[in-house]
Amino acid sequence: MSAVANPPNAGLNPAGGPGPAVPSVRVPLQFVLTGVMALVAGTVILVRRPDLLATYHYNQYIIATTHLFVLGWITSIVMGAMYQLVPVALETRLHSERLARWHFPLHLIAVAGMVWMFWRWDMKQVAHFGSAYAAGVGLFVYNIGRTLWRVPRWNVVATAVLSALVWFCLTLGAGLAIAAGKCTYESAATLSPTSAWGAVIHSLQAVARFATRFDQIAAMHAHAHLGVVGIFVMLIVGVSYKLLPMFMLSDVQRVWRARASVALLNLGLAGGFFAILLRSPLKQVFAAVIVLALILYGCEVAAIFQARKRRTLDWGLKYFLTAVGLLAPVSLLAMVLSLPGLPLNAFTGQLENLYGMAGILGVISFAIIGMLYKITPFLVWYASYSRHIGKARVPSLADLYSSALQVAGYWTYLGGLLVTGTGIVLSHALLCRAGAMLLLASLGILVVNLGLILRHLVKPRIEPLRVGPSKPLTPRPSTSNLGNPLPRLASNS
User: Fold this and answer.
1) What span, in angstroms and rounded, lies between the C-alpha atoms of 439 and 441?
2) Residue 1 pLDDT
3) In terms of Cα–Cα distance, which of 183, 179, 148 is closest to 165?
4) What is the rounded distance in angstroms from the CA atom of residue 233 to the CA atom of residue 90?
5) What does the pLDDT look like over 171-195, one tens digit per residue?
């Protein structure tokens, strides 16, 4: 416990009014907790059904589990984080916290329904819940889009966020088209296309006919790449150009390199989607464009790292930088799988499984867990203790959770990825189960640490302020940087 010297910023108002552009802690934490529960649930499924990883991935159960990870875990975290971080990173205000609150129940119901209906392979209901999900995404995209509209200075971070929103909409449209293509439309014969409902059914039937012109596995792969790379990798690349300099006390070293990485990522995605969908040999060309974008990104991250003023890295940053390092083997695997004429046999099928697992549970999930350890403690600290700055002794950010558990979770998760990956390549269900159990153990550690953090919302640890000549005040995270509570977090966490 240590005292707080910095006076509160009188203009701060996380819920609105003059002050910073951040919503209340409730909005992002709802999405964060939903995401963590989905990650744990998905990993439990892998422990119980290791055959999902040890055999080829095109079946209803692995599709349901993948959507649980992607929509339930990753998208939930991304949405909650964007509601909090986009205004912070771009120094503006969130357009509407009310829309964010309306979005959450739609998201929760839609994701749960879609995953369950995928598991049952009831594609009609998948489409229904997918429409509810689309409504939630519409609220999200509108809210963040309106927030971007008033950005005072457009930069590479804003470009990456806008790109991710566009890819989000296109991914959703592609997914709904695939779902429509797997439905039947018996009622179309009895409905007039001039009636309202008949027009809807006949339109869906036309979409279904168009979707079925493409190879099903190719369409699924194109849809998956559009979402995973276009939304999540794009956001990791773009937002880290703001967060890494902030947390490392550094700066972007080459702006052209940052801009080029985002531009090439967009180019590779646009061409790669159609190349994968059409099974064109050009998919390796566009894969190379994406890899080049990630190489530029890696070079800029290395330059930011070398120029940092904060020499000691906390474990949250180590999680994130490890995820960045994992981009290298995943990119290499992508180049191999994009080779023209690569035969689809049992081994290459398992390489595709490895590629998906390493991308979703490796790169993206590791990066998100690292950022959760940076963002969640501050959200809770800010909600519980910011108003006591200068009036009482409050915990530091590091006091909110166990660093020892954080370290144990890092190595356990890394070991789980290695064992699971080995089991996938060898088509060995027991190794896949052992790896999934290690991942689950790491997630148990994460849940415990999040519990330690969240208890400060329920029972804050506040002590009377005692200042003496032998015990000077220790500066704590300031809330006076451009009305933005996060920039000084880096030097105090």
Assistant:
1) 5
2) 36
3) 148
4) 19
5) 999 988 888 887 776 766 676 777 7
Among candidates 40, 2, 174, 147, which has minimal Cα distance to 84?
147
Residues of the chain with pLDDT under 50: 1-21, 470-476, 478-493
What is the C-alpha to C-alpha distance for residues 356 and 361, in angstroms, rounded to an integer? 8
Which residue, 299, 294, 255, is CA-closest to 272? 294
- What is the residue whose two structure tokens read 């203009």? 11
Instruction: Give the pLDDT of residue 188.
Output: 65
The predicted structure's pLDDT at residue 482:
34
Helices (H), 228-359: 234-248, 255-277, 283-306, 315-337, 346-357
Q: According to the model, what pLDDT value does residue 338 have?
A: 92
First vs last C-alpha separation in the chain: 14
DSSP 201-232: HHHHHHHHHHHTTS-HHHHHHHHHHHHIIIII
Lookup result for tokens 């979770």: 409
d(Cα 452, Cα 298) in Å, to the nearest integer? 33
Question: Does residue 363 form part of some domain?
Answer: yes
pTM of the model: 0.86
Task: Report if residue 181 sits inside a domain.
Answer: no
**Chain centroid to CA 220: how far?**
20
76 near 30, Cβ under 8 Å?
Answer: no
Buried b (16+ CB within 10 A) or exposed e, 124-147: ebbbbbbebbbebbebbbebbeeb
Distance CA 368, CA 36 (A): 10
**What are the pLDDT digits (tens) for 346-390?**
899 899 999 999 999 999 999 999 999 988 998 888 888 888 888
Helix axes 365-385, 429-458, angle to 10 degrees: 10
pLDDT of residue 229: 94
Give dist(CA 251, CA 155) in Å, integer. 14
Q: How many C-beta neighbours within 10 Å does residue 74 have? A: 24
pLDDT, position 187: 67
Q: Taking every pair of C-alpha atoms in the chain, what is the biggest distance, in angstroms? A: 87
Neighbours of 461 (CB within 10 A): 15
d(CA 228, CA 236) in angstroms, rounded, equals 11
Both tokens assigned to 112: 């749960």
| C-alpha to C-alpha distance for 79 and 85, rounded to whole angstroms | 10
How many distinct structural domains can be found in the chain?
1
Structural domain that includes position 29? 2-153+312-491
| Contact assessment for residue 134 and residue 111, using Cβ atoms and an 8 Å cutoff | no
Distances (CA, A) of 260 to 49, 201, 228, 268, 270: 42, 43, 20, 12, 15
Handedness of CA 239, 242, 246, 249 (dihedral sign): positive
**Burial (CB count within 10 angstroms: exposed 0-12, middle 13-18, buried 19+), residue 380:** buried
H/E/C letters for each residue in 324-353? Answer: HHHHHHHHHHHHHHCCCCCCCCHHHHHHHH
